[in-house]
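Entry type: protein chain
Record version: 2
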Amino acid sequence: MNNILPAIIAKDIDELQEKIDQVEGLVSWVQIDVMDGKFTPLTTLFEPKDIKKIRTDLKLEVHLMVENPDLKLDDWLRSGVSRILVHAESTSHLNLHKIIENVRSSGIEIGIALKLNTNISQIEDLIPYLDLVQFMSIAEIGHHGEPFDARVIPKIISLREKFPNVKIEVDGGINEESAKELLKAGADNLAVGSAIFKSNNIKETILKLQNL
């Protein structure tokens, strides 16, 4: 069974709790999108300290779509999340090294996210120190409902060939049809937003995705 992570964009902590409640008991992880209005057009109105207020048994993966994620990294390390994803494009390569070291030393999982047009060669030296690599599979990040972009497929295949043991996550525009392509290409985790939260039956949709 593959690992499906409901991907949540929420304007505030109340909406975040509501969406987590909708998938509680159906999955092991959820992905929380955090946006600063600079790296992406949208802004989320909650802080790392607010995550502690979330009532859930699920593991939380926070996807930091923010510029200079190192500035609030210590706060995220104390927030109770189990995995932190930072974007390769959001800071310098030197800072990425430091972020990875700090997150790993705290006992929290660390991943690097790549926009669709970012070449994997930019982070190849970091991969041995990562818990996963996340590929974005939409052209414009920061919105639910963007169309799936198949240009991500050869990137997954290439990374899997170069690093057979790396865990690969894909995020953006994923539905039942595109999920099949992604899993065939070598993806391990699928972060799914609209296909889950806009479905008429969330439980049934998640089960279908998990059993592909």
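Comment: The chain has one domain: 3-210.
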